[in-house]
Amino acid sequence: MTIDAILLMAVSMLVLWGGLGAAIVNIVRFKGREPDASMRDL
Amino acid sequence: MTQVKAPIDRGRFSNKTVFIMAAIGSAVGLGNIWRFPYVAYEGGGGAFILPYLVALLVAGIPLLLLDYAIGHSQRGSAPLSFARLHRRLEFIGWWQVAICVVIALYYAAILAWSTQYIGFSFTQAWGDDPEAFLFGDFLQTEAGVVSLEFVPAVLIPMAIIWLVTIVVMALGVQKGVGATSVIFIPVLLIAFGALVVQALMLPGAIDGLQSLFAPNWAALLDPAVWASAFGQIFFSLSVGFGIMITYASYVGRKVDMTGSAFVVGFANSGFELLAGIGVFSALGFLAQASGAAVADVVSAGIGLAFVAFPAIISQAPFGALLGVLFFASLVLAGFTSLVSILEVVISAVRDKLEMGRVAATLAVTVPMAIVSILLFSTRSGVIVLDIADYFINRFGILLVALVAMIAVGWGIRRVPWFAEHMSRFSSIRLGRWWVVLVTFVTPVLIALMLVQEAVTAITVPYEGYPAWMLGVFGWGAAGAALVAGVLLAIPKWKQTTPLEAPPHDEEVIR
Fold first, then answer.
1. Number of domains in chain B
2. Residue B499 belongs to a domain
3. Does residue B6 belong to any structural domain of this protein?
4. Which residue ranges does UniProt annotate as crossing the membrane (chain A) (predicted)?
5. Contact B256/A30, CB-based, under 8 Å?
6. Sign of torsion, CA B360 A40 B26 B199?
7. Which of B135, B320, B377, B453 is deepest in the core (most CB within 10 A)?
8. Would you give the distance in Å from CA B297 to the centre of its chain?
9. Interchain CB distance below 8 Å, A8 and B47
10. Which one of B50, B57, B266 would you mutate to disrupt binding with A, by most A Cβ within 10 Å of its Cβ?
C-alpha cells in the first residue's frame, strides 16, 4: 500500500472508531440517572 | 413525576443499552455491507472520509436527533406522535408507516436469498458462473414479464423468515425487538470481524485496501461525491421513516438521548468502515485470482453479495467459512433491520386501534407475509424488488423526511422546543447549532438530493426496465405510500387515546 493510502486508512479508523469510543465513554461517564419507577415494571 | 393511566401498555426498552442496541440493529443493515464500500471507492477512496464525516455530523446525527426528539417527547408511534404535534401532520406518520410496509415486503426476500446462500457456500452450487446461477437456476428470472410462478428455493426460506419474524414481533418491545438486537448485534460484530480477519489474510487483500483507501482528492470538487456521501449516511442511519421515532417512544424520560444518538451514529459508520475493509480485502483477492484489476471486479448490492462473493468463496482457501460468515452477517444485519421496520407498522396499528401486542402483530404481519411471498418468491420477484427498492428509497423516504422537516421546522416551529426537551437529561446539549442544521441546512441538502434523483429517474429509465413496470412498481409504489398516508389519517382516534402532548416528566408511556 502507498503511504497516503495507509495514512487515510488510519485516519478513517481513528475518526470513526475513535468517535465511537469517545461517544461510548461520554455516555458511560454521564451521571444522569434513569428513573427507577419506569424500570421496575419491566 | 406524573403518572398517567395508559389505554394500552405500549411496552418499552428496559434500559438505554437495549435501546441503543436496537437502534444500532436498525441502522446497521444490508446497505452497510454491500453499499458503503462501493460508494466510498467511487467517491474518492480515502478522500471520501471528509464528505462522509461532514455528512454524518451535519445531516445524519442531527436528523437522528430530530427523530428521537419527536418520539421521545410525544411518546407515540409515528402517526400518533405527529398527530400530537398537530392533527394535520398525522398523515406524515402514516406515510412513513406505508413506506415501511413496502420495504418490509421485499426485505424478507433478500434475507431468504442470503439464508439459502449460507447453504450454497458449502456446496458451491453456483459452479463457475455465479451470475447465471443467481438469475437462472436460483431465481429463475423472467425479464420484462410479471410471473406468478413460484420459485420453491425462495418460497420456503421466505416462509421461514416470516414465521421467525412474526414470533419475534409478537414477543414485544423488550423481549422481542430489544432481545433480538442485544443478541444479534454482538454476534454480527464477531461474525463480520472474523470475516475481516480471514479476508485480510487472503493474497491480494492489500491491493484491495489500496484501491479503497488511495485518495483521489480531485473527487472532493465533484458535487456528486458530496451528494453520495449524504445519501449514504441518510439511507444507512434509518432516519426519516419512523423507526427512530417509534424506538425513542419506548425509552424512559431521563435517558441520555443525545449521547445515545452519537453512539448509534458512530457505531453505524464504524461498522461501515469495517465492512469496507472486509469487502475490499476479498475483492483484492478476487482480482488477483482472476488476473484482473480491482476496478474490474468492484460491484455493489446484489451483484456484490450474490455474484462477486460466490466467486471469491469458490477460489479462497476455507471459502465455505468465508461464505457462511458473509451471508450469516447479511442475515443478522438484515433481520434486525426488518424487525425495526415492522415495529413502525405494528406500533402504529396498536396506537390507533388500541390493540394488544399479539393481535396487532398478527393483524399486521400475516397479511404482509402473504403479499411478500406472493410478490417476491415468483420468477419476476427480483425485478419487482429492484424497482421498488430504488423508487421507495428516493421518492418515499427522502421525500417524507423533507416534508417532515419542513412541517416541524417551518410549519409548527417546534425545533427549539425539541432542543430544550432533548437537553433536559442528556450529556450533550442541543443548542442553536442543531436548530440551524435541522431547520435550514439539512432540508436544503435533502431537497437538492431529491431534485437530482428526480431528474435522473425521469430522464433515464432505471436499469432499462419497461416503462409500465417502473410506473407500477416504482412510481406507483412510492405514490401509493403517500396516498395511503393521507387516507389512513382520516379516521379519528379513539376517545381514550390522548392527543395532547404529554408533559416533559410524564413517565408512563401512553
1. 1
2. no
3. no
4. 6-30
5. yes
6. negative
7. B377
8. 26
9. yes
10. B266
What CATH number does the domain containing B377 carry? 1.20.1740
> Residue B510: pLDDT band by 50, 70, 90 thresholds?
very low
Inspect the interface and report whether the beta carbons of A15 and B53 lie closer than 8 Å: yes
Shortest Cα distance, chain A CAs vs residue B213, angstroms: 5
Its ipTM equals 0.89
Whole-model pTM: value is 0.92
Q: Report the residue from B214, B259, B427 with minimal CB separation from A2.
A: B214
Return d(Cα B394, Cα B449) in angstroms, integer: 9
Alpha-carbon distances of B301 from B308, B386, B493, rounded to whole Å? 10, 10, 41
Of A20, A33, A42, the CB nearest to B254: A33
B341 vs B398: CA distance, rounded Å: 16
**Alpha-carbon separation of residue B66 from B113, B317, B407 (angstroms):** 35, 47, 12
* Coil, strand or helix at B412: coil
Q: Which residues of A touch B16 (CB under 8 A)?
A: 27, 34
Tell whether B375 is covered by a domain. Answer: yes
A23 CA: distance to closest CA in chain B (Å):
5
Q: Is the Cβ of A40 closer than 8 Å to some Cβ of chain B?
A: no
What is d(CA B497, CA B207) in angstroms, rounded to the nearest whole number?
Answer: 60
> For the segment B176-210, what is each residue's pLDDT rounded down to a tens digit?
999 999 999 999 999 999 999 999 999 999 999 99
- Nearest chain A CA: its distance from B42 CA (Å): 15
The grid coordinates of residue B250 equal 419506548
Full domain range(s) for residue B293: 16-488
SS3 B378: strand
Instruction: Find out whether B339 and B180 touch, Cβ atoms under 8 Å.
Output: yes
The helix (H) or strand (E) run that includes residue B314 is: helix B309-315
Q: What is the pLDDT of residues B406-421, one digit of tens each?
A: 999 999 999 999 999 9
Residue with cell 425495526: B340
Q: How far is CA B264 from CA B48, B257, B326, B347, B352, in A?
A: 21, 10, 23, 22, 29
What are all long-range contacts of A2-5, with beta carbons under 8 Å and residues at least 24 apart? A2/B210, A2/B214, A4/B46, A4/B214, A4/B215, A5/B45, A5/B46, A5/B209, A5/B210, A5/B213, A5/B214, A5/B215
Do residue A9 and residue B213 have CB atoms under 8 angstroms apart?
A: yes
- For chain A, positions 6-35, list CB contacts with chain B under 8 A: 6-9, 11-13, 15-17, 19-20, 22-24, 26-27, 30, 32-35
